[in-house]
Amino acid sequence: MLCNERMVVASWHCALPSFEKAEKLGIVKVLSYPLAHHAFTRRYLLEEVEREPDFAATLNAHDRPTWQVEWLDREIELADHILVGSSFVKQSFLAEGVPESK
Questions:
Q1: What is the pLDDT of residues 35-88, one digit of tens each?
Q2: Model pTM score
Q3: Which of 89, 82, 99, 77 is nearest to 41 (CA)?
Q4: Helix axes 38-51 and 66-78, enclosed angle (nearest 10)
Q5: End-to-end CA distance of the chain
Q6: 80, 82, 93, 83: which is closest to 22 by C-alpha?
Q7: Separation of alpha carbons 26 and 78, rounded Å
Q8: What is the DSSP letter of 36?
Q9: N or C: less crowded end of the chain, CB within 10 Å?
Q10: Strands, E, within the chain: which ranges?
Q11: CB 61 within 8 A of CB 10
Q12: What are the b/e assignments for 42-77, b being 16+ CB within 10 Å?
């Protein structure tokens, strides 16, 4: 995590505490999220399980606990900007309704 008085940059799944404090202080929040949006990934993996049930045990990344999904959603909600790793990742966020302005 990089932090100064004007901006905090934090990685997905560990940004929430910093973002909550930064929100109160009016600091810009940048979320580094190099992977596809978690809801997009879950939906994709569930489709794969339906197509290939024999591989279901290997595709268990869709089994996140509710608290974890809420945590990830809150990080995305609080982020002013999201740093993504590719155009595919960007499209996954847009498909989940995240504004392109982020």
A1: 999 999 999 888 888 888 888 888 775 678 899 999 999 999 999 999 999 999
A2: 0.86
A3: 89
A4: 140
A5: 19
A6: 80
A7: 11
A8: P
A9: N
A10: 2-3, 7-11, 28-33, 81-84
A11: no
A12: beebeeebeeeeeeeeebeebebeeeeeebbeebbe
